[in-house]
Amino acid sequence: MIDPKDLAHCRDVIRTGSLSFHAASKLLPASVRDPALALYAFCRLADDEVDEGNNKARAVLDLRNRLDLAYSGMPCDAPEDRAFAAIVAEFDMPRALPEALLEGLAWDAMERRYATLSEVRDYSARVASAVGAMMCVLMRVRNRDALARACDLGVAMQLTNIARDVGEDARASRIYLPTDWLDDAGISVEDFFANPQASPDIRRIVRHLLAEAHRLYIRSEAGIGALPLQARTGIFAARYIYDGISAAVRRNAYDSVSMRARTTKTTKIARIGLAAVRTVGTVILPKSPVIYARPLDEVKFLVDAASYVSPELPSSRAAAFVDIMATLKARDQSGVAAE
Q: What are phi and psi of 37, to 5 degrees?
């Protein structure tokens, strides 16, 4: 399915760029691990293009063109693109899923801020839950309940990322914390950018965000038993390794401004062991009723897409996506004209 040389390149990308996923991926069966590595390499490429480029608008527009080519069966001549096109063809990947990721990256390019926790979940759904839904597709899981829990896990992971990176983001003039939480604490975003400090209010906000992530990590576990047995340990490992970052933030007294939370190799090994134990539990224990919890409102469109209910973006979201692309194109052309 995927050219071995392209797969080797994708494996190297993940080995150096996403240590947590690389560790968890070793526990997946090859039938899932190989396309998953290719998927993450393409997503990583997309994220890096936008995050590190000088012209973020142009980067997103280029990614949209690359996505068009991949879905037409004529991918760009790059290992990540060729591997992703092979995945699209083999697994009938609904286009709404990678387009959701692209929309989240477009929001990054526009330096969008999020007023409420719901809006932060909207963003997390696109940049993280969309990947979780695509992982389910790679496992040939289209069950709506399992997909909803996979999306819970994606949001939880992204909230963990946001909580860990508060200081790093502020120093780059980025903010992903709900701005109404900052307003309630009397914190001006611009003042925080000018002088990022781990004040008691900022620590409280980080703690609050991690509490929401923890709630979703717990909800996500109910869906892992609906995945193929051989894949469960790997997904549990991803869940526990990532939650280890949350634990590291807590050990730092919720200061993610002056220090960055890190997990050790020993911690990762211990959490992989816990993942193996939890996998045994999915075989011998009754199914948790939590699996039937309704999906978060912010991720429902992803569940609809991956379960074939609505494989394309709903009309309202499709229109919003078109508007965002048009805005970025105008920004890009304005930038070119200025030069």
A: -60, -40
The full set of domain ranges for the chain reads 94-338
Average pLDDT in the chain: 91
Instruction: Show the beta-strand stretches assigned E in 7-68.
Output: none
> What is the rounded distance in angstroms from the CA atom of residue 58 to the CA atom of residue 106?
10
Find all residues with CB under 8 Å of 281, minimum gap 6, and list them.
Answer: none
Backbone angles phi, psi at 199, to 5 degrees: -70, 165
Provide the pLDDT confidence category of residue 149 given band limits of 50, 70 and 90. very high
pLDDT of residue 168: 96
Residue 338 has pLDDT above 50, yes or no: no
CB-based contact 153:239 (threshold 8 Å): yes
Q: Which residues contact 337 (CB under 8 A, 6 or more apart)?
A: none
Confirm if 79 and 44 have CB atoms less than 8 A apart. Answer: no
* Second-level CATH architecture of 94-338: Orthogonal Bundle (1.10)
Q: What is the pTM of this model?
A: 0.91
> What φ, ψ does residue 238 adopt, rounded to 5°?
-60, -40
Tell me, what DSSP letter sits at residue 299? Answer: G
Coil, strand or helix at 310: coil
Reported as type and span, the H/E element at residue 17 is: helix 4-17
Q: How far is CA 292 from CA 227, 284, 307, in A?
A: 15, 19, 15
Give residue 93's pLDDT.
95
Q: What would the two tokens of residue 189 be?
A: 């975003």
8 Å CB contact between 313 and 301: yes
Amino acid 241 reads I
Of the candidates 65, 203, 217, 231, the residue with the CA atom closest to the CA atom of residue 153: 217
